Amino acid sequence: MGPLAIFVLDIACILLITGANLFAISLFCLNKQLRIASNYYVMSLCGANLLAGCLGLPAEMLIFFSNNFRDIACRTFQYFIHVIDGAEIYSLVLISHDRRWVLLNKVQHHSTSVRRAAVAIATTWLAFVLYGFRAPFMYNMETYIINHAVNITECGMSFYGDHWDVVNRWFIVLDFLILFLVPLTVIIALYASLVQRLRRESMEQHSRERVAKVIRIVSAVICVFFFCNIPSRVLDLYVFLGPGVFRGEPVAREICDLVKFANFGLNVIVYVLLNDGFRSSAIKQLTRMRNTCRMIKIQPFTHTGEDAD
Q1: Where do the domains of the chain lie?
Q2: What are phi and psi of 20, to 5 degrees?
Q3: Is 108 exposed, middle or buried (0-12, 13-18, 19+ CB in 10 A)?
Q4: Which of 41, 47, 58, 73 has its CA at a distance of 20 to 30 angstroms from the CA of residue 111?
Q5: What is the pLDDT of residues 150-194, one digit of tens each?
Q6: 270-to-66, 191, 290 alpha-carbon distances in Å
Q7: CA distance 150 to 199
Q8: Is 244 helix (H, G, I), strand (E, B) or coil?
Q9: pTM value?
Q10: Residue 45 half-sphere exposure toward CB, CA atoms < 13 A
Q11: Record: fold of 3-281
């Protein structure tokens, strides 16, 4: 895949991310019925997605395509991607925990506390704003020599030597655990315990359908997250724990990161399509926009005056 194709795909990914998430945020703001405590967690997810499209991916494009400010772009990208990754996946954890709590307590979404949601969201974001501070000090534009012949310059670890090499490897493992494996395990455990508990209780058909719908929505979003993130996580582990940087690694990383960034637009699209409230609001909004476009017609110019002789 050439640089032009990667550039076009990057631009398309930015448009997908910003368009999908701004549309979901507009639905939340325009529809009062959607402004419930549970959906604030969804807005936290959209906020992380927007940061990925507006800051994360443009910084990565600057690293890959530009020869200027690459060091600053590298450090900026690594900081924001750590914050964004953490805020996104743990917003999904908050959504899963909230849905589980609502179903087990048999309450409506609007009865949950907005203040509790705000505190949980603020705590999550603050934790990963602090967690990401180490990244700018660990990453830099580094030049690697492959087979004593090929030089590759990319955004990589800036600490070297026996001591720092061990530290870097542990931080890569730590990122894999905190930003990928642990939250996925927590989400699976939440819904496994939910299904197990609900099987022991007698439920009406309506309640069973409601539970199945919630599990289907979150499962679909988690599957999108997993399949979009696993290539970049495997590549990180392969490079930093295996043989190291290889000749085609910059292009492979760009492609893996592009797939990873696609998740920031796809997850909200999946959620809007599967959630009844967001889907009905989206249909109404799109219908309203279509009708508005039909009403705006360019009238043909007609000359009412008499032609001069």
Answers
A1: 3-281
A2: -65, -45
A3: exposed
A4: 47
A5: 556 677 776 555 555 667 778 888 888 999 999 999 999 988 887
A6: 34, 19, 22
A7: 60
A8: coil
A9: 0.86
A10: 30
A11: Rhopdopsin 7-helix transmembrane proteins (1.20.1070)
